[in-house]
Amino acid sequence: FMINISSALFVLIVFGFIYFRIRTFRVNEQIGKSFNVGNYTFNVQDAYIVDKDVNGNKVVSDGGVFLAVRIQVKGYGNKLILNKGIINLSIDGLNYGVDMESAKVFSDLGLAYTKQIITSDFSTYLFVFEVAESQVHKRVQLKINDYTGFVGDKFGAKNYYIKLRPKDLRKNDKLLVNKKIGQTINFSDSVIGSSSFIINKYEINDVF
Predict the structure, then answer these.
(1) Which of 17, 165, 172, 185 could anchor a disulfide with 197, C-beta 3.0 to 4.6 Å?
(2) Rounded to an integer, what distance in angstroms lies between the CA atom of residue 40 and that of residue 55?
(3) DSSP code, position 52
(4) What is the model's pTM?
(5) DSSP β-bridge partners for residue 87
(6) Beta bridge partners of 143
């Protein structure tokens, strides 16, 4: 009996020592750049501030907004399902978790991730977080947690941080742009992204 107690205490001491010796490393990544986390490769594409669904209905409480992030992801393995718990929004040290259900109402921004199987080819999914409106103008970062492993010659856990510059789509609700034929319309602040559009001519006919 005493031997069992001693063995149990030894195991607890060893695990406690390992736990407190594990360091957490910060790794900064950029939007548009691919990086590996465990069995996955991520590429953060865009981020948007929204408060209305695809039909134009307000879907957030007063004082709140949704921050939607489009992420490309692929995996290495069979029937991989991404653990949403490793993806968080970090604002001034506060972490916000993924809201899978709310993401479904923003289908105009992308396909919500709802536990689809991650394949070896890149797929783009939408991850949504509900935050206070006052928070989105602070330092907003996407945080992805990696599992423990070696960082150089040191053992620890890695947290990947991607600085976001979310586009505020709310200001486009009542935006009216007047352009003449041949002038360029810029969509840099829209879901379309770095694109432009030119109308060279138009016709009015009974039948096209």
Answers:
(1) 185
(2) 33
(3) B
(4) 0.73
(5) 144
(6) 88, 161
Structure tokens that stand for 81 in this block: 């399902």
As a whole number of angstroms, the distance between CA 113 and CA 123 comes to 10
HSE (side-chain half, CA atoms, 13 Å) at 70: 20
In degrees, to the nearest 5, what angle opens at C-alpha 19 toward C-alphas 144 and 157? 25
Beta bridge partners of 89: 96, 142
CA distances in angstroms from 39 to 75, 76, 133, listed in the order given: 6, 5, 34
d(CA 42, CA 29): 10
Say whether 15 sits in a helix, a strand or coil. Answer: helix
Alpha helices in 81-184 (DSSP H): 100-103
pLDDT of residue 60: 87
Longest CA span, the chain: 96
Cβ-based neighbours of 5, under 8 Å, separated by 6 or more: none
What is the length of the chain? 208
Please report, for the chain, how many H helices and E strands are present, in that order: 2, 14
| Backbone region of residue 145 per phi and psi (left: phi > 0; alpha: psi in -120 to 50; beta: other values) | beta
C-beta separation of 97 from 84 below 8 A: yes
Comparison of pLDDT for 95 and 152, the residue scoring more = 95
Burial class (CB in 10 A: 0-12, 13-18, 19+), 65: buried
Helix-strand-coil percent breakdown of the chain, rounded to 5?
A: 15, 45, 40
